[in-house]
Structure to design on (261 residues):
């Protein structure tokens, strides 16, 4: 019993850390001003006039439609859909076999085979056709479209399979494991998708770009409005606060009872 109590206390600590991060994101959205592209350009112009050419930095929120880079849109690896950002994930589902007490026991397990996120930049465009670059820097956006979620049974035969030009082993878990199949998932941002971005605008490379803050700070990209994101964070914070209290005091009680017994 005391082991369960300790696990609950550990879960409470982890939940508290997540709760603090959620609250910090919420406060960042509330305290950061949403600026239009012309307003940012004007601030950058003033910075240049004051001798800070190439050194402009401003934490801000921007809103616009996703727009491909000059080289054109990316092509998502699994669905072959034109996009500005994508992520794909491949998981192997297999049956794991162990022998215990002279009996064979089977369990279904999953292992990750591939997980890739595109890192190419793109832009946001406003109603007047003005743009600002977005440097994703590996950040995974929220609430984006999922284009693929399918399971393909393993057909047997060759003990390997090909994924985007790479040949990967089919039996990654050992000879006693039987591959059941592979689950493919893909998420992407199509050109024209309305995005909210919280980050730091800068002109290091010349044109204005918004990306991860150089110092400490939040970097959020989402296919949601700021109001929706605030509501999500508020709801999550309340649920985490309640869960942390229940897990902590429940864990303490179970630990004490377990030790006393």
């Amino acid at each position: 019993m005391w082991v369960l109590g300790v696990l609950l206390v550990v879960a409470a600590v982890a939940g508290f850390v997540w709760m603090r991060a959620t609250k910090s994101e919420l406060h960042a959205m509330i305290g950061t001003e949403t600026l239009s592209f012309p307003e940012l350009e004007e601030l950058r112009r003033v910075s240049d006039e004051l001798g800070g050419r190439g050194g402009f930095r401003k934490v801000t929120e921007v809103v616009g439609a996703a727009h491909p880079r000059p080289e054109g849109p990316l092509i998502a690896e699994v669905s072959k859909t034109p996009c500005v950002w994508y992520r794909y994930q491949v998981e192997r589902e297999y049956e794991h076999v162990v022998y215990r007490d002279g009996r064979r026991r089977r369990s279904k397990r999953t292992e990750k085979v591939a997980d890739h996120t595109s890192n190419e930049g793109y832009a946001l465009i406003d109603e007047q056709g003005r743009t600002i670059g977005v440097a994703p820097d590996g950040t995974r956006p929220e609430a984006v479209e999922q284009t693929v979620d399918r399971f393909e049974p393993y057909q047997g035969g060759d003990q390997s399979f090909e994924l985007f030009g790479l040949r990967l082993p089919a039996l990654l878990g050992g000879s006693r494991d039987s591959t059941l199949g592979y689950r493919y998932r893909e998420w992407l941002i199509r050109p024209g998708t309305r995005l909210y971005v919280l980050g730091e605008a800068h002109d290091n490379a010349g044109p204005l770009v918004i990306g991860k803050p150089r110092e400490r700070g939040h970097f959020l990209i989402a296919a949601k409005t700021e109001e929706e994101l605030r509501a999500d964070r508020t709801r999550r914070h309340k649920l985490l606060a309640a869960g942390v209290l229940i897990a902590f005091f429940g864990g303490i009680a179970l630990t004490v009872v377990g030790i006393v017994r």
